[in-house]
Amino acid sequence: MTMSKMPQRTAVPSAPLTVLLPDDVTAPARARHEVRAALLGLGLDEWQLDDVLLATSELVTNAFEHGECPQRLEMSYFEGQLTLRVHDSGSRLPELRAPSPAKARSRGLVLVQALSEYWGFESCPGGKFVWAVFRLPCA
């Protein structure tokens, strides 16, 4: 009996993406643009990106409106798992609130929760990260 000596293919994580965010209302659009370009560059199709891009906007908008200055977005992708992390300099931790039909806003984290596999936050020196994880097919 012969055994093949072919090398095992191992998955290599994509290079992490870090986007420095402006301290103004253009931050969500900048983050969406950079995440979209990075994921298309990994070979994902446009139709696979809608949920991730909406969650990107919500995470950055929440950091802008409820944190203290969104500073950066970090993205990593490995073996079909995409992680987005948004850092802001605020110490106030996010709260998942039930949306009110009477209010046109305050649905950001509810959307992130619905679109992602899971989400969370962590305090760190100089602020906090709010993150979300998505399952996407391997590119």
What sort of overall outline do the alpha carbons produce when their principal axes are compared? globular
Q: Could you estimate the helical fraction of the residues in percent?
A: 25-40%
Distinct helical segment count: 3
Q: What is the CA-atom radius of gyration, in angstroms?
A: 17 Å
Helix and strand string, N-terminal first?
EHHEEHEE
Low-confidence stretches: 1-12
Strand order of the largest sheet: 1-2-3-5-4
Question: What about the largest sheet?
Answer: 5 strands, antiparallel
Description:
The protein has about 140 residues and is of the alpha+beta class. The protein is built from three helices and five strands; from the N terminus they run βααββαββ. It has helices at about 25-40, 50-65, 110-115, and strands at about 15-20, 70-80, 80-90, 120-125, 125-135. Strands 1-2-3-5-4 form a five-stranded antiparallel β-sheet, with helices on one face. Strand 4 and strand 5 (about 125-135) form a beta hairpin. Helix 2 packs antiparallel against helix 3. The relative contact order is 0.20.
Would you spell out the secondary-structure blueprint of this structure?
Layout: E1 17-20, H1 27-41, H2 50-66, E2 70-78, E3 81-88, H3 108-115, E4 118-124, E5 127-135
Antiparallel strand pairs: 1-2, 2-3, 3-5, 4-5
Helix pairs in contact: 1-2, 2-3
What is the structure about, briefly put?
By secondary structure, this protein is of the alpha+beta class. It has helices at 27-41, 50-66, 108-115; strands spanning 17-20, 70-78, 81-88, 118-124, 127-135. The protein is built from three helices and five strands.
